[in-house]
Amino acid sequence: MLNGLKKRYLVFATCLFFCACNGTKIKNTPKTIKTICCFGDSLIAGVGAGSDETKYHNQLKSLIGITDITANGKSGDTTGQALSRLNKIAEKKYDLVIVTLGGNDMLRQTDWKTTEKNIRKIFQTLIDSGSVVAYTSVVRNSQYEDICKEMGVIYIHSILKGIKFNDDLTIDKIHPNDDGYKIVAERVAKSLKDADLFDK
Fold first, then answer.
1. Domains in the chain, number
2. What is the pTM of this model?
3. d(CA 124, CA 86)
4. pLDDT tens digits for the chain (200 residues)?
5. Looking at residue 95, which CATH number applies to its domain?
6. Helix (H) or strand (E) holding 89
7. How far apart are CA 130 and CA 124, in angstroms?
């Protein structure tokens, strides 16, 4: 009888935990994160940064205490164009892949069904490779957020909030400068810590 009660309690506690996390269990966790790849477009390529050291992924290193962070970004890439680089990323089996894509889809008015198909393929391929996946969006988008919840991906929204169109933080009202990338890195680091991937 006691064992049965313990089992029911554990199930109940587990359900409470998942409800507290908005019903999302992050795929491939728990995992000790040692290697990270930032995969995406111009924000990952570092357009606007004054030096390699001030690019977003390099500023992220000191904030989470991880030195092995690789950037694989191509300026102008849509979700569809990024598929050509996907398998090479998956083959590396990074512990964590942070995906930053979709902005160029919006700029080019790509059909949402096409974008959704591409982003789902990107997420699933990386999850199947064993990586924890995080997705960063420029603004909060319920469509991306729903996909992330469904697929067990960490959703990090509004990374450019207060940065876009700010001449003090961008080079062209869109791409961050060194100070802008510092803010982006801080926001991503906080979200990863909130997801219990790193110590706060």
1. 1
2. 0.88
3. 11
4. 445 444 443 433 344 334 334 457 999 999 999 999 999 999 999 999 999 999 999 999 999 999 999 999 999 999 999 999 999 999 999 999 999 999 999 999 999 999 999 999 999 999 999 999 999 999 889 999 999 999 999 999 999 999 999 999 999 999 999 999 999 999 999 999 999 999 98
5. 3.40.50.1110
6. helix 79-92
7. 10
Structural domain harbouring 183? 27-194
**Beta-sheet pairing, 154-156 with 132-136:** parallel
Q: Quote the tokens at residue 131.
A: 């990586």
Sign of CA dihedral 155, 95, 86, 49: positive
> Could you give the CA distance from residue 107 to residue 197 in angstroms, rounded to a whole number?
32
Residue 36 per-residue DSSP state: E
**Bond into 176 cis (ω within 30):** no
List strand residue ranges (DSSP E) for the chain, in order: 36-40, 69-73, 96-100, 132-136, 154-156
- Sheet order of strands, 69-73 included: 69-73, 36-40, 96-100, 132-136, 154-156
Task: Output the six-digit token pair for 128.
Answer: 């199947």
